Every structure is written in C-alpha cells, then in structure tokens.
What does this fold into?
Amino acid sequence: MSTRLAPAPGAAAGAEAAVRPVHSTALFTWFAGSLASCGAVTFTNPFEVVKTRLQLQGELAKAEPGAPRPYRNVAQAFWAIGRNEGLRGLQKGLGPGYMYQIMLNGTRLGLYAPVKSVLYGAAAVPGGGGAGQRQSMALNVAAGGVCGVAGAALGSPFFLVKTRMQSASKFAAVGHQHEYRSMADGLRRIWQAGGVRGLFRGMDAAMMRAGVGSSVQLATYDLLKAQAVQRLAHRGLTGDSVWTHLLASMGTGLCVCVAMNPFDVVSTRMYNQKAAAGGGGSLYRNPLQCFYRTVAAEGFSSLYKGFLAHYMRLGPHTVLMFVFVEQIKAAGARFL
It folds into this structure.
C-alpha cells in the first residue's frame, strides 16, 4: 500500500495560483478588452464624429430660430459628412480612437476584477463579487469608477487628438479647427506648443467623464447580467449565453448615456478649445467653468446635445464590446 503525503500548509493554494488559467488573468482581460473595444469602435466611430460636431455646434451662443445650423440632426449630419467628406470623413480620428480604446478599456476591464476583489475584501463582503456570487452595487460602482479614471488618464492625449481631428471640416466647421494631418502630426504639434501639459490638457474633464461612465457601465452590466440569468433561466439563458450578454449590454448602454452625456459635452469642448497664450484654454479654465458657461449661454438642454448620436455610438459600442470580450474570454478558456 502506498502512502500519500499530505501537502504542506499553503502548498495547495500555491499550486492553484501556479496553474491559474491564462484566460482568467488581468493581463488576458486587458488584452481581451483592448481587442474587443477596438473592434467595436471600428463600427461606431462614424457616430462619434457626428456626436462631436453636434456637441460643438453653437458653442456658447444663444439659440436663435434663424441661426444657421449645418448639422440639424443625427441622420442629416451623417448624410452631410458622408456626402462632402466621404467614408474617410466619417472615420476621422479612428487611429487615435484605437489607441484611446486600448488605454481606456484595456485598462479598466483589466483592472476591474482585481480592484473589485480588493474592495470586497476591504469591506468584508463574502465571495469577492465574482460571477454567481453576491454583488454589491456600491462596491461595483466604486471599482468601475476607479478603473475608468485610471484608463482616462492614460488615454487622455489620444482622446485630445481624436476630438480635434473629428471636429475638423472644410465644408461645415464647428468649434476651433486644428487641422492635424494625422495622429502623429497632432501629438507632435501639441508637444511642441505645450509639452506634457499640452498633451494632458483636459484630462480632468476626461477623468470625470470616464469615472461616471465606467462606474455606471461596469456595475450596471454586472447587475443586469445577473438579473437576466436569474429571471430568464427558464428560457435557457446562462451567464455564458450571447443573448445574456446582448440584453445586459443594451440596458447598460442606455444607462451610461443618460449619466455621461453632460460630462461628454464638457469633455469635448475642453479638449477642442484653442490653447491660450498662458498655456490654458481660451474658453474654459476647468470643467466646472465649462459646465457653468455652457448652461448659462445655451441652457441646461445643451448638456444633452448629441444625445441620440451618443447613444447610437455608445449603445452599439457597449453591446459589441461586451459581446466581443465575453467571446474572446470564452475562446481563451477553450484554447489556453
């Protein structure tokens, strides 16, 4: 008869950590989030261009019935840009858009589970907030917000260039026109004019935008996904079902758009404004002043400029990103 020695204390945990599946690591989640969000933005970037121009149209101007508006609504703006600038015009800013998605969504999706685990541990909530375990909306919101702020800070220079490239137009200019030839040209010119401070101008507005959007998005997706599985299990839905991911993503996109649009308008205007001689912005010193001046000049409804275009960009983007990332993680589980 053979005798099997009992493992030394902690050996089982060490062995488990040593064989932890690659697809469950933060690094793989970062890769999956980056790849999924780049795939999503390829399809949704034209609506980002439309949204940016609608948000900049009539900047700090009192609304007048007879005032010229080159972009009247989402459909007309999409048609006008496509007709006058072609597919290239509708896909303006796609290069820096890819880089921003890698920095923002790769970072926040990769860090979300580890940050959430730390917060759950600190709050002594059992289960760690994993799939099928007890969920705390407050802790999920906090984890999503932290990850969103971190991702926005890293991606800020690329969001800056993307916004400025998307606003540029020779047939219907709105906002200040920067006219960068490419992402590299934009980064070079910003660096030459303002150094590091210039590259990260408007980062505070982007951090507010991403903090709000990410906290709502990640926490709401977790909640809606759990609810879909719980309430529709009799229909055959599971946590790994594409239909579960689709339903959760659709609801999440609407919630995020409602919460984030005011911060998105402010972020767009902070990034696109012309630099002042002293190194700051020519129109707004900070996001709070941008909120105040925008509402004072254009009314509260101005904070929801471009809302439909925003949802038409954010809704499909959220759906595609989460469906893509879940499928990439599922593929990783099968092959890694």
Summary: The CA atoms of residues 41 and 317 lie 6 Å apart. Residues 1-19 have pLDDT under 50 and may be disordered. Residues 25-59+70-335 form a domain with the Mitochondrial carrier fold fold (CATH 1.50.40.10). The chain has one domain: 25-59+70-335.
